[in-house]
């Protein structure tokens, strides 16, 4: 029977691979390899088994096998970096991990049409989404190109989310202008989520609506609406796309984590989503420990899982960067080593570059760390976190006046980011460095309102309030910080200087004195 995989059909009897109605050219050996991996997708296949099955025991080089595996990935639109369909497991072998459907020869659409209303959705083994063509709600049909541009760019940006399978633009646009049944689309494309929306232009303003729908339940998980004046049409499009993509990243992680928590046997990616969701709750030792533990479980299941490696490094790195541990140097060194390993597997991983950047920034290598974050932005131009990290790095270089602009850019790209609270606190740090204590209080309060679970934010607010002479508010802020991190002391904070820049060091002394006045333990 034919296999259906992510918009492709592999017909073993006819020895054909098709994408829609288009026959895909595939070398015979590559076709054999695809068929063998799909047929044995319930397990990891060793390299020796592949040699025996495909080459019939003939002696061939490892590079020949690697080239055929890469060709098999390419035939299905996969890559060696993402490995969303064919995954190589270090020292174990290869496994086909994509969702596969077997039918009696009917097309996916015909199978979907035969389903009765209310039947359960076709299961898929991976987080998956289709961005349906946004509707042009304007009177002017000439705006269609702009609306289509939003849809295409959003599809591209979402494809950068590791662990998310995004249906290709060409497939999604076959639904343009048609009446939409979300559940039927789920059947046809084997996706868990559908994103749909509309764009309406009136004069010099745009109104954008978008909603994320879970296919199986038809529940609306998230909706966004915003109005924006048009200055430059393409700049406006970029801003729309970046805001939606960054917000969807968080929403999809949350949805996937919630879904997988009910699973008796979560796979590595399920555990990674849970680790991400736990990390988003806040920077406390409890959440960091839980997050790291989930990533470690994922790595035990899949030793080459890049997301698990980056997650473990992030937990270790944040504990050091945010002064939440007495073994700061060791935690940061461990995080750096883990990230270097991750980047050796996936050198184009934007988040790994950015996290390595903030670790370098926090270990007296700010210029080097900023360069790493800039490299992350080359890989993902809308990566808001990298902009915020650069702003932090400017502070370490004694250029605190530049921090606010970088954080504002991060907030423009992702105004509701789960990390936004930390970024605002970093501006508060910078304002303290500049002796702009009243402005520091404003930024620190904004940051803590966004995410209360940031101990260093509370201690910094305590310092700012003390420097302004607001003693009762300072002591309250210090107590709030100690409730989250009872082991925090000024001694720990002083020992963790992340820059030897004299301007930076002078500003730090003011902060130490403010903390002391606020009643933060000396240690």
3D architecture notes:
The chain is α+β, with helices and mostly antiparallel strands. It has three domains: 3-102, Orthogonal Bundle (Arc Repressor Mutant, subunit A), CATH 1.10.10; 108-260, Rossmann fold (3-Layer(aba) Sandwich); 387-523, Alpha Horseshoe (Serine Threonine Protein Phosphatase 5, Tetratricopeptide repeat), CATH 1.25.40. Helix content is 55%, strand content 12%. The chain has 22 helices and 13 strands. The strands form three sheets. Strands 8, 9, 10, 11, 12 and 13 form a six-stranded mixed sheet that branches. A five-stranded antiparallel sheet has the order 4-3-2-1-7, with helices on one face. A two-stranded antiparallel sheet has the order 5-6. Strand 3 and strand 4 form a beta hairpin. Helix 9 packs parallel to helix 11 (306-321) and helix 19 (455-467) packs across helix 22 (502-518). The radius of gyration is 25 Å and the shape is globular. It starts with a strand and ends in a 5-residue tail after the last helix. 47% of the residues are buried. Mean pLDDT is 86; it is low at 104-123.
């Amino acid at each position: 029977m034919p296999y259906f995989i992510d918009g492709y059909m592999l017909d073993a009897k006819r020895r054909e691979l098709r994408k829609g109605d288009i026959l895909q050219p595939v070398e015979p050996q590559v076709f054999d390899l695809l068929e063998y991996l799909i047929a044995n997708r319930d397990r990891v296949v060793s390299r020796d088994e592949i040699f025996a099955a495909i080459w019939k025991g003939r002696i061939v080089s490892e590079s020949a096998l690697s080239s055929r595996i890469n060709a098999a990935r390419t035939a299905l639109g996969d890559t060696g970096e993402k490995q969303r369909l064919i995954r190589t497991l270090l020292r174990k072998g290869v496994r086909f991990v994509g969702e596969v459907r077997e039918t009696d020869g009917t097309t996916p659409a015909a199978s979907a049409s035969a389903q009765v209303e209310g039947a359960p959705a076709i299961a898929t083994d991976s987080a998956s989404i289709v961005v349906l063509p946004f509707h042009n709600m304007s009177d002017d049909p000439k705006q269609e190109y702009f609306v289509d541009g939003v849809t295409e760019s959003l599809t591209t940006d979402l494809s950068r989310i590791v662990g998310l399978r995004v249906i290709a633009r060409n497939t999604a646009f076959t639904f343009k202008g048609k009446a939409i049944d979300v559940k039927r689309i789920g059947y046809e494309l084997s996706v868990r989520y559908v994103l749909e929306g509309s764009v309406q232009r009136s004069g010099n303003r745009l109104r954008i609506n978008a909603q994320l729908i879970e296919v199986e339940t038809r529940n609306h998980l998230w909706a966004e609406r915003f109005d924006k004046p048009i200055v430059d049409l393409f700049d406006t499009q970029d801003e729309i796309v970046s805001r939606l993509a960054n917000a969807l990243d968080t929403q999809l992680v949350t949805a996937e984590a919630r879904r997988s928590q009910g699973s008796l046997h979560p796979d590595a990616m399920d555990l990674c989503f849970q680790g991400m969701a736990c990390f988003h709750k806040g920077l406390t030792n409890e959440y960091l420990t839980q997050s790291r533990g989930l990533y470690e479980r994922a790595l035990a299941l899949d030793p080459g899982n890049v997301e698990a490696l980056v997650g473990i490094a992030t937990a270790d790195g944040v504990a050091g960067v945010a002064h939440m541990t007495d073994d700061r140097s060791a935690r940061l060194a461990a995080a750096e080593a883990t990230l270097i390993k991750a980047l050796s597997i996936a050198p184009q991983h934007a988040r790994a570059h950015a996290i390595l950047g903030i670790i370098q920034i926090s270990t007296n290598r700010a210029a080097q760390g900023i360069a790493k974050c800039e490299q992350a932005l080359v890989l993902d131009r809308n990566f808001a976190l990298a902009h915020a990290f650069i702003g932090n790095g400017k502070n370490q270089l004694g250029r605190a006046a530049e921090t606010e602009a970088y954080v504002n850019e991060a907030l423009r790209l992702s105004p509701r980011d789960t990390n936004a609270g930390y970024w605002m606190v970093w501006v508060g740090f910078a304002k303290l460095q500049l002796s702009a204590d009243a402005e520091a209080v404003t930024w620190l309060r904004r940051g803590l309102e966004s995410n209360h679970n940031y101990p260093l934010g509370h201690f910094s607010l305590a310092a700012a309030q003390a420097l302004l002479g607001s003693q009762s508010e300072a002591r309250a802020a210090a107590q709030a910080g100690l409730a989250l991190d009872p082991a925090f002391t000024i001694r720990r904070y002083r020992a963790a200087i992340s820059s030897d820049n004299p301007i930076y060091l002078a500003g730090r002394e003011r902060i130490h004195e403010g903390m002391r006045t606020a009643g933060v333990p000396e240690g």
